[in-house]
Amino acid sequence: MPETHVVGQPLPRTDAEEKVRGEAIFATDVQLPRLLVGKFLGSAHAHAEILSIDTSQAEALPGVRAVITAADIPKVDTYDPDNRNHAFMARRFAVYAGQPVVAVAADDLTTAGAALELIKVEYRPLPVVFDVREAILPGSPAVSREVTADTESEAATEEQELPNLANRHVFEHGDTDAAFAESDVVVERTYTVPVVHHGYIEPHAVTAHWDRAGHVTVWECVQSPFEARDLIADTLGIPHTNIALNTTEVGGAFGGKWKGIYGPLGVLLAIKAGRPVKLILSRHEELISANPAPHTVIWIKTGVKDNGTLTALEAKVLMDVGAFPKHDGPSAIGVSAMMRNKYKFQAWRLESQDVLTNKVAIGPYRAPGAPNAAFAIESQLDEIASRLGLDPLALRLQNVVDEGDLLVGLQPQVKNGVKETLTALAEHPAWTDPPPPRRGDDGLLHGRGVALGAWGSGMWPASASATLEADGKIRVILGQVDVSGSYTSLAQIVAETLGVSAQKIVMKKAGTDHATYAPVSGGSGTIYSMGSAVEEAARDLQAKFLKRAAQELEVSEAELEVNDEGVFVAAEPERSCSFQRLYELGTDIFLAKYPPVVSQGSTLPQQQAPTFAATAAEVAVDPETGQVTVTRLTTAQDVGKAINPLSVDGQIQGAAAQSVGMALWEEVMYDREGQVGNPSLLDYHMPTAADMPLIETIIVEAPGGDGPYGAKGVGEPPMIPPVVAVANAVAVAIGTRIYDLPITPERVWRALNGRSNE
Amino acid sequence: MPETHVVGQPLPRTDAEEKVRGEAIFATDVQLPRLLVGKFLGSAHAHAEILSIDTSQAEALPGVRAVITAADIPKVDTYDPDNRNHAFMARRFAVYAGQPVVAVAADDLTTAGAALELIKVEYRPLPVVFDVREAILPGSPAVSREVTADTESEAATEEQELPNLANRHVFEHGDTDAAFAESDVVVERTYTVPVVHHGYIEPHAVTAHWDRAGHVTVWECVQSPFEARDLIADTLGIPHTNIALNTTEVGGAFGGKWKGIYGPLGVLLAIKAGRPVKLILSRHEELISANPAPHTVIWIKTGVKDNGTLTALEAKVLMDVGAFPKHDGPSAIGVSAMMRNKYKFQAWRLESQDVLTNKVAIGPYRAPGAPNAAFAIESQLDEIASRLGLDPLALRLQNVVDEGDLLVGLQPQVKNGVKETLTALAEHPAWTDPPPPRRGDDGLLHGRGVALGAWGSGMWPASASATLEADGKIRVILGQVDVSGSYTSLAQIVAETLGVSAQKIVMKKAGTDHATYAPVSGGSGTIYSMGSAVEEAARDLQAKFLKRAAQELEVSEAELEVNDEGVFVAAEPERSCSFQRLYELGTDIFLAKYPPVVSQGSTLPQQQAPTFAATAAEVAVDPETGQVTVTRLTTAQDVGKAINPLSVDGQIQGAAAQSVGMALWEEVMYDREGQVGNPSLLDYHMPTAADMPLIETIIVEAPGGDGPYGAKGVGEPPMIPPVVAVANAVAVAIGTRIYDLPITPERVWRALNGRSNE
Questions:
Q1: Which one, A368, B305, B425, B454, has least CB within 10 Å?
Q2: Among residues A537, A569, A603, which one ends one of the domains?
Q3: Of the candidates A514, A517, A586, which has its C-beta nearest B596's C-beta?
Q4: Taking 90 as the threshold, does the pLDDT of residue B161 lie above it?
Q5: B550 touches chain A (CB under 8 A)
């Protein structure tokens, strides 16, 4: 790997000052003249036919400026009733509790709330499809689906058999039965993961402005501005280029704000009211009407030889996708693939079923589906290691899929750092230190566990522009939002490429009107994809200004070098041309000698870059209460090249907290009526700093991929292993295993006391 | 000239609907939370030393949020006291009546006005330097100049001799005395042009927002966003990239809003107040504190042979530049050059002097200085034609500088359309129709006059980006503002280049944070310069999408053609790839096969493109009142290629109105105390539709330059000849000549009645 000067430096975030000073503009900070407040009435029922809606009293309330129902949504060719994003308001059927049925725009929140209370909706309740295992059975009541002329006929026939089956797939390879027969040990378990919420600090928020000439301006807290724009265009039939979507700061997203959810609703209110409207979800609405991570039920059967060689894998994955077949969340098929792809098996049979229920549609959450898959396969491996008396980390190293080994689609795995990652953890004190005695002097039960997570680096098309500036800086224009300090890392890439310090780079975020295409900030693709685009823009810019400087200084470009001031002749440093001068010579209407020095980068990564993270966790369990405390947590991760190690550390630490939360506390609790029982952060327990130990990080830099300076995706991999490492540590500590997340004190206590956890 | 399909079409303006509906955002429409109103106190004296300023009572007034004086301006290295833009507030000296001395930001305009009345400024009045002819004399009182450590010593010595001489230059070539001696006729006259205001509908306006992290956002009505940004940066010492300047719609500018005037003042108020501030000039302030066109006194002597061959030119140009040597307006040297450059002379001696007076600094106004120059030289030619009994149009054709003839700097003139322009007018009924009888049956005196104007095409560096869009349109991103429908013409250039219709092009104006460099919308350079940049961007975009389409359709690029839907195989039109599909293949994170299809254009024109306009005007003069009515006005203009003939017609017609206004009515009237006597549009007479005849246009398309599709600059040339064509027509009508503008009824009456007009 070539030596770098700016890339690899642990730099503080460039947006720190404005955020600390409260100057950063979040969605709620957007203010416009005559701005109204939007609010929606969610369905009282998880499943019902809407017989009538009476909005007359609400419309008559002073201060109410618009009342809309699905009837106000324009008819557009692109409408797809199966698509959750298109079903932002209930039409004939309400299919989850909290689904918007009516929305209002009013002068203030109080008036909006009062208006909602005046609305009378007549529902005909329908049987609530609640349990994924029941929903998939023949004869189950069906989640209602809206129909269009196109979908009516096909929907009718298929519904008879398995009315809630949204998608089914089988991966099959080799003779699974024979492989199991040859195995020395076979472990067969069922693992469940509940619905989990992302827990971003800032709720979904959109402010929409419409003008009578047909232009729409939207300020929205989303990760993928162009997709968010296109969602509004497609659902409301507005030409894409009539919509300017300006992303605000993102107060946490984790996949949950990919393209927004209620952008179209906000715009529709603004059009109806003829005034701008701001719609901010309450925390309650976030927990019932957003797009959580999926509940899964995974039956898994694993065969292994006494020497630790894995043989066969069989699994059946049921994923509860909520009420819509089309959504932005993961799928059961992906979970199946992820279970297979980390380890070598000679045969496998993996059945995947996406199942509809009367719950809100699922969405992407940091490494979507991967914690679900990992909880199953990594628990299995741990149980196998325990049964065979093998070191669980060594067992993984022994079986892991490496370069050239076949993946589930029978394509070979590419170059990666899985062994380096596992080895780095294996050699770290987190693993080499003697484990804590199971029964400590503190009266607590102790255990140590390990787990491995695998993910990829997002390969998105991306583009950006760059230009020299009047103050001698380099301005980079991009449409992507800064999530978790990514602008700082992107600036480091630009600075490294140009040969200047990071302070010379100014990143400017543009909305969809002014940016060329930029992809989502997510999917572990920000640095891998946008990093490549800004690197290309920087290279192009450098080529251009070196050419100009060579003209000015009357030397060949090869004789030139770059520093923070500009370009100089290497052999005679006093012969130089500052960036300011180069700007002037390309802009001043009197002095200009050549065109403006501007550049573009537009890229699509060509090489996959798989990424791996491995976590060792230690827990202490109180046998009296069942309470689990994580006492030590260490994650090793292959990031290819840490562009900004501070940022990488932050990603690993933040992900660990979310993953531990999933292990021990987090669950959106649905009752059989499809109602969420804990729609508040008082009742939905997210970890706080007090719940977490100091998290140690081990940055591994293995070659692979074609990312900038060797970088790979960083954000999602560290989310995957901690949840299972903790579960595996608890299993060691309490001597028995819990197959359902979260591992609550009640479940631990029941396990310790021989009670069923069913 | 190659055949074009979109270029050359008379298309209505793309911004028509939003403007007609009142949705376009002008500077006054910008609203921000906690927005304050800014207002300044102008100096009561045209010339005074400021002894003290007491703002204590104003600061104590409830609702006043900031009070600033020059003492609040940060000390910056770039400060230049001679530069009007840097002297946006008076420091030690007030040098023109109305110069800002104190400014306030308050909750509303009433409070701001009340605060100003509470401010006590103690002045020591100084002698007012008023008349340019007196000001240039040795021993004249001097316009005070602020000093810095740098300028103190040099200023002291130079001031002794000619204290108000800002700049002097002489063009001299050949033996002028001998040439006059050989002439058959010598005409020697002095022409004056008064200070004239642009008369834009919208006044100067700026809204400034500052945050504690040091970012400044400005919404300003300016023609040159980057220069306006840099002005704020340079005067206040703010890094350029910390300032985002967003241009609003331009409600008329005509050069007067090049880089704004009070942007720095608005920003300084916002910083001091810690809240956003909007500052809008009143019409009164516009007329006393903006940047009008200059007063000139031109003595000119012209020799000619009996056969009409011009021989010698001598001139002395005094230009009253106001109180600052550095300003954005024209200079006397430019006026001298313009007088020489239209016609061939064997010898010339042209002395130019820029003179300081205690008036507001001048600025650019549509063809800056050219009407002043034209009034002198084109009146002279008319008088010569009359004396020799020659056709005044033929006299011009005979003497005009054509390709290869030497210009004032002895460089050869380049290819141009001057003869085509004059010939087109000569052959038009406006000239071939018999002239009206001098004494008509209507009791009025009639006359017809002609004049020629010359100008250039602005050669600015320019850049823009383009991209395919989700709705199949092409989005062009540029930093330039749309002045007089230029976006419509630019879209036509892009459409023509791509082979699609103009409706497929969407122009998006970006602020200085998000646009790459764009030059001023002005100087007849919008189409010539930015037109080239968007043409290059379109060509680059087409190359990219043709390459992608060729891949998709598995043919060579040569087999492809383009229509409004996308790209198709010429021989098999059903084999096609839509623009939407091409967008998707370069953006969709699942389907992408290549990078986003984006492009850039960055250009600097290399060839000059001189432009010419010639006007024939007919007037009717009431001998009782001296009132002049323009009864017919026809302008022929070489535009190279009319990208949008509707837009060209509009430019010619609008300019005619401004030029006729200058001929007959417009004058900012200063008294000897340096106070403006008519600072209101009730007293400053601008023409209305009722004052103007229908204006005929003759579009000439002569080759030359390297503009897009042959286009040359359009906006300024038609401003030049009407003022003199009208004056020449009046001279014919009344049988005597008026040498001072405007040709008011009083002056006409005096001339008709043998009274002096001195």
A1: B305
A2: A603
A3: A517
A4: no
A5: no
